Amino acid sequence: MTASPAAEPGRWKDKPPPPRAWKGKPGLSRARRTAEQDRAAGGNDRRYVDLGNGRTAQASVELKVLPNTRRIRAYLRWSDSGRSPAKYLGEVCETTRARNLAAAWRMAFEQELLIVPEIPSDSWASTPASRKVMKANRSRDTKPELALRSAIHKLGLRYRVDTPPIEGLRRRADMVFSRARVAVFSDGCYWHGCPEHYRSSRQNEEFWSEKIMVNRARDRDTDAKLLDADWLVIRVWEHENVTDAANRIAQAVQSRSGQPPRST
């Protein structure tokens, strides 16, 4: 999604933008201002910048109209050791403050200024500082997972969702077929290092490459633990054809359950 200024250039050409397009409501509590930024960013965990050496800071977007101008300018601000750095993001021109904040946060993500949340480390991060940085990204009900679950459900199979396949395993599978002892993981191409589509980040390349390596190692360890417990692990990349993946899963589940193959 692109920022709105490209779609409607010069919205405020003849008059200054109205206060409701950029000024915050006076007297708002800190909690309400935080909630406003969280909504615009898409979540509290999507507002972090990397300060280096494992340190992070939560950022906020500031909207300003400079004197003698008719443009709303967006800045990303955060605190670092008593300083308040700011990064100019660009101009926004929506008619409400909420929409302009959302547009500015999109700019921040597109400019790769923010740390994208990732899967919980379960103590796999190399340092305590790294564990602090790692935020939950892989949650249940992602778009690829929902599509895969729907396709499997249409084949007549039932399953448990977002649960540890075996007791004591601190890893949750996206779909679990308990009777057949089949665990299905819907893996994002970036966070799990897809050999076809993974591209390292241009910003903090070493930092994020290490995180992807940790995720890969964690996946291999999960597979090994489930294999030792006589489980079958099926991993489906988000780029895979959903129908083909669902058929593959159905055949495995039916085979291990002693059921006749279902026609597709």
List its traits.
2 domains; Endonuclease, Chain A; 9 strands; 264 residues
What does this structure look like?
- The chain is of the alpha+beta class.
- It folds into two domains: 4-110, no CATH class; 128-257, 3-Layer(aba) Sandwich (Endonuclease, Chain A), CATH 3.40.960.10.
- Helix content is 32%, strand content 18%.
- It contains six helices and nine strands; from the N terminus they run αβββββαααβββαβα.
- The protein has helices at 30-41, 97-110, 128-133, 143-154, 205-228, 242-257; strands at 48-52, 55-58, 60-64, 72-77, 86-92, 160-163, 173-177, 182-187, 232-237.
- The strands form three sheets. A four-stranded mixed beta sheet has the order 6-7-8-9, sandwiched between helices. Strands 3-4-5 form a three-stranded antiparallel beta sheet, with helices on one face.
- Strand 7 and strand 8 form a beta hairpin.
- The chain is elongated.
- The two termini are 37 Å apart.
- Residues 1-7 and 118-138 have low confidence and may be disordered.
